[in-house]
Amino acid sequence: xxxxxxxxxxxxxxxxxxxxxxxxxxxxxxxxxxxxxxxxxxxxxxxxxxxxxxxxxxxxxxxxxxxxxxxxxxxxxxxxxxxxxxxxxxxxxxxxxxxxxxxxxxxxxxxxxxxxxxxxxxxxxxxxxxxxxxxxxxxxxxxxxxxxxxxxxxxxxxxxxxxxxxxxxxxxxxxxxxxxxxxxxxxxxxxxxxxxxxxxxxxxxxxxxxxxxxxxxxxxxxxxxxxxxxxxxxxxxxxxxxxxxxxxxxxxxxxxxxxxxxxxxxxxxxxxxxxxxxxxxxxxxxxxxxxxxxxxxxxxxxxxxxxxxxxxxxxxxxxxxxxxxxxxxxxxxxxxxxx
Length: 339
Prior knowledge:
Elements: H1 5-26, E1 29-34, H2 41-56, E2 61-66, H3 74-83, E3 88-91, H4 115-122, H5 125-132, E4 140-155, E5 169-172, H6 176-183, E6 188-191, H7 197-202, E7 208-212, H8 213-218, E8 227-243, H9 244-247, H10 252-286, E9 290-293, H11 296-315, H12 320-335
Parallel strand pairs: 1-2, 1-3, 5-6, 5-7, 8-9
Antiparallel strand pairs: 3-8, 4-7, 4-8
Helix pairs in contact: 2-10, 4-12, 5-12, 6-11, 11-12
């Protein structure tokens, strides 16, 4: 029996609808991951992350990495994550303080005995889970929290003792805790975007920078600073910030995969970062740079001056989220200290 025109048309529409749904469900989703560094543990993490997501989703989520801020300066990338025009941004959470000021809480100075102590503490679920969700109402969800490196000072003149910091202008992140931290040294903190630090040192806008010796070595800091002083006075965390608009495009299974892979590889990245330090110290020395540490008594004095800043900035903060997260972090840091 022949189908009437109406029946035939409806059948075609039904088939097209089914095919459309199938096509949509199997469509490959692009995942652009941007970050400010290159040839470092963060880059290795990003490359490994996109490869693992591609494998576990059978190519349904296809990642691409864009190091050295190829997708734009840091503020533009954060905006792009919120708008959904960029899928992922990997960096220290302090850069997202414009999204939520509580992202600064992980940057506590003087809290951690070493790299692994910092990573253990930050990854306690009762801290990590609410911390990674700080940007949700602004369209951002983090999938990991890991430790990149301890902080060091690289400068255009020697820093062998605390008195050498007096009067210096030091590049810091644009956070209150970092500016206060260098102020305890008698120096002035100057917030400068990471990609502008080397030219700022060349033009003598600043005398030095406070950051990771690993990322600094890869970013050509030794070409303009020949004095490296390792303090580890705070440990630099990293997050994997994802656009919620991107995550909402994924199936439930693929969304879970993206976040799970990010978290799993965060532990790998932290260990890899820690293993980079010795190699990077040798790299600094190979450029002719002087690598030094503060004398033991001065290091102890420096840390004792820094420790109360966290209580001042976070413990007494007017923002209840900051106070609550800080209280948890402080408690867990004490519990996770195995010295």
